[in-house]
Amino acid sequence: MTLERIQLEHVPANIRIYATLFRDVANADFLHSQLLARNPDFEYAFVDASSVISRFHLLSAVYAAVNALVTGSLRTPNVHSEIVVSLNVNNNIADAYRRWGIAPGKTKDLIVVKVVAAPEGAASTGTASSPARTAQEPDDEQQSLWTHLATHVQGTPSDLTDANLAPLTDWSKVRKYYRLNGVPALAGCKDGEEKRRQEEKLAVMGMALKGL
Amino acid sequence: MTAADKQFPPPPILTHPSASPPILVTQGAEGRLYKTTHLLPTLPCALKYRPPKPYRHPALDARLTRARISAEAKVLERCWREGVPVPAVHAMDAAAGWLAMEWIEGVPVRVAINAWLGDAEGEAAPTNEKQEEDLVDLMRRIGEAVGKLHKTGVVHGDLTTSNMMLRPRGSGTPANGEPEAATQDGRAKALEGEVVLIDFGLATQSMSDEDRAVDLYVLERAFASTHPRAERLFGAILDQYKTTFKKAPSVLAKLEDVRMRGRKRSMLG
Ligand SMILES: Nc1ncnc2c1ncn2[C@@H]1O[C@H](COP(=O)(O)OP(=O)(O)O)[C@@H](O)[C@H]1O
Ligand SMILES: [Mg+2]
C-alpha cells in the first residue's frame, strides 16, 4: 500500500489526510467522469502531478484547503475541490481545474488526496504528544480507501516522495502558472537544487496571496 | 493552558495539535509573533497574529485586520520576488488574522550589535581597527538591504535594528539561536551573517524621496538610542545605500531636511 496518512501541523485531530501517487495512469477519462458525475464514492482530490513541484508544494495546498474547511470559508463545494483551487494563484475555479485537475486524455501521473473529517469530538482529545487521536479512528479507513483506489485507478502506485515527484514536473507549465519567468530573485541563481527551492517558495507565496 | 495562554489566548489555528507547542515570541501593540511549525514538525515558522480588538466595531475590526495582514503579506511577496532579503510567506488567512512566514534563524541585529559592543566594553584593550571593521561591515550589509528595499518601491515604515535579523550564512536548515560572543572567535563571528528585513506591518509602496528619507531617519534615530556607541559609524550604512541604490543622492538630500525638521521639533519640545 502506498497510500499514506499525512499528519500536518495545526490540523484538528478529527481531520485525517491521506495521499498517494499513481504513475502511468491509463484510465484518467474514467476517473474524470466520476468527478463530473459527482459520484460520492469518488470524493478525492485528483491532481495532475505534472503541475506539482514537490511534496511541500502539494501539502501547502492541502493545508490551505483544510484550513478553509475548518474555518468554514470554502470557496468551492468541498475540501477536495478546494485543494485543486488552492494550487491556483487566483480564485478562478475553472482555470484551476484545467491546470491542476485530472484531464481526460492528458493526465498520466496522478496525485490522489483524501481528506476525512470525522464528526467533531470523535477524536478531538489528542495533542501531538498524546496517542489519543490515533486510538479512536477506524483502523480500516486507510485500508478501505486503498482498496477502493487500487481497484479503480489503473496505474502504478508510488510513494508520494520528492524523488518520485521531481521527474514528473513539467517546468514550462509550472513556470507559467506561477509566473516564475524573469523573476529578479532568481536571476543570480545557478545551482539547480537551490533554484528549485526558490521557485517552490515563489509558487507557494503565489498560492497564499491569491492574486492580491 | 499556561498563564500566558490565559492572558493572550492563542489564535484558533494554534489550538490544533502540533509536534511542539507554539512559543509566544513577542506581544506588540498591534499583534503577536509566535514561533511555531508549518506543515511539518521540522519546518519552523514565524506566525504573526492580529487578535480582534474588542474596542473596535466588529465589522470594522475584521476589515482592518484582513487588510493589514494582506498588506503585509503582499509587501513580503513583492520584496522577496525582487530579491530583497525578507522571509518568504508560507501561508495566510487574512480573515482569521494570521500570516505564517519563514522562520529566520539568528538574532535581531539589535541583539548582535549590543552583544558585540558589550563584549568590547569588558575587554582590557579597546576595540581595535580590525574589530571595528567587523561592525562597519555589518553597517554596509544593512545599507545594502535598505537600498534594495527602496529600489523596489517599498518603504518599511519602522526601520529599527529590532526589525532586522542577522541570519548565519548557510542556515537554510535549523541552526543555533544565540549570538556567539563568548570566545574571541565567537566575537569575530558575532556580526557575521546576512541581514534580513522583517516586520512589514507599517510598510507602504512608495517611490517618494521624502518617504525614503524618513525611513533612513527613523533608522538613524534608532541607532542613536539603541546603540549610541555605534552611531558614529552610521555613515557606513548611507555609503552602502548610495552604492546599492541609484536614486540615493536625492533621498540623502531629503534626509538633511528631515533631520532639520527633527531638530526643530525637538527644540520646540
Ligand atoms: N520571520 C521571522 N523569523 C524569526 N524571528 C522573527 C520573524 N519575524 C519576527 N521575528 C521576531 O519577532 C519579533 C517581533 O516581530 P515583528 O514582526 O517585528 O512584530 P512587531 O510588530 O510586534 O514588532 C522580531 O523582533 C523578531 O525577534
Ligand atoms: Mg518589530
UniProtKB/TrEMBL annotation, chain A:
Location of the region described as Disordered in the Swiss-Prot/TrEMBL record: 123-143
Domain of life: Eukaryota
InterPro entries linked to this entry: CGI121/TPRKB (IPR013926), CGI121/TPRKB_sf (IPR036504)
Keywords (A to Z) from UniProt: Nucleus, tRNA processing
Biased composition (Low complexity): 123-135
SUPFAM superfamilies hit by this protein: PF0523-like (SSF143870)
Subcellular location, record wording: Nucleus
Function: Component of the EKC/KEOPS complex that is required for the formation of a threonylcarbamoyl group on adenosine at position 37 (t(6)A37) in tRNAs that read codons beginning with adenine. The complex is probably involved in the transfer of the threonylcarbamoyl moiety of threonylcarbamoyl-AMP (TC-AMP) to the N6 group of A37. CGI121 acts as an allosteric effector that regulates the t(6)A activity of the complex. The EKC/KEOPS complex also promotes both telomere uncapping and telomere elongation. The complex is required for efficient recruitment of transcriptional coactivators.
Protein name as it appears in the record: EKC/KEOPS complex subunit CGI121
UniProtKB/TrEMBL annotation, chain B:
KW Ribosomal protein (keyword) present: no
Catalyses which reaction(s): L-threonyl-[protein] + ATP = O-phospho-L-threonyl-[protein] + ADP + H(+); L-seryl-[protein] + ATP = O-phospho-L-seryl-[protein] + ADP + H(+)
Alphabetically ordered keywords of this record: ATP-binding, Kinase, Nucleotide-binding, Transferase, tRNA processing
EC numbers: 2.7.11.1
EC top class, as a word: transferase
InterPro entries: Kinase-like_dom_sf, Prot_kinase_dom, Tyr_kinase_AS
Protein kinase domain location: 19-269
Superkingdom of origin organism: Eukaryota
Chain positions covered by the region annotation Disordered: 1-21, 162-184
Function comment: Component of the EKC/KEOPS complex that is required for the formation of a threonylcarbamoyl group on adenosine at position 37 (t(6)A37) in tRNAs that read codons beginning with adenine. The complex is probably involved in the transfer of the threonylcarbamoyl moiety of threonylcarbamoyl-AMP (TC-AMP) to the N6 group of A37. BUD32 has ATPase activity in the context of the EKC/KEOPS complex and likely plays a supporting role to the catalytic subunit KAE1. The EKC/KEOPS complex also promotes both telomere uncapping and telomere elongation.
PANTHER family named in the record: EKC_KEOPS COMPLEX SUBUNIT TP53RK, NON-SPECIFIC SERINE/THREONINE PROTEIN KINASE
Family: Belongs to the protein kinase superfamily. BUD32 family.
Complex and partners: Component of the EKC/KEOPS complex composed of at least BUD32, CGI121, GON7, KAE1 and PCC1; the whole complex dimerizes.
Protein name: EKC/KEOPS complex subunit BUD32
